[in-house]
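User: tokens in, sequence out, please.
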């Protein structure tokens, strides 16, 4: 786990590195603090992009985005993909609405 060397920036980095995918929920003030620190937030986004870019081509395909979409769906209380026609429709809409992301700069 990577930590920043300075004060609250380190706490923010720690929150960003440990949140997501493990069931931890951040409240609004946590999110504002993390997004408000450009260096920490940028580092977190870079880390997540690299984590999702399994083939290391610098682009995120729909297949590579599926785990992130599933995590978001789960966080929103949606049933797992494949278990409900209603939620499957939402997953399909998200998948077809996301063009291939060529880099973080295109976000």
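Assistant: Sequence out:
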């Amino acid at each position: 786990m990577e930590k920043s060397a300075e004060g609250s920036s380190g706490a923010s980095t720690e929150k960003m590195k440990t949140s997501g995918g493990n069931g931890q929920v951040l409240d609004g003030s946590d999110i504002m603090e993390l997004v408000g620190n450009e260096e920490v937030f940028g580092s977190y986004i870079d880390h997540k992009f690299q984590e999702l870019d399994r083939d290391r081509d610098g682009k995120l395909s729909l297949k590579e985005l599926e785990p992130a979409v599933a995590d978001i769906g789960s966080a929103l209380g949606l049933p797992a993909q494949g278990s409900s026609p209603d939620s499957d429709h939402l997953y399909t809409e998200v998948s077809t609405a996301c063009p291939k992301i060529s880099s973080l700069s295109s976000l």
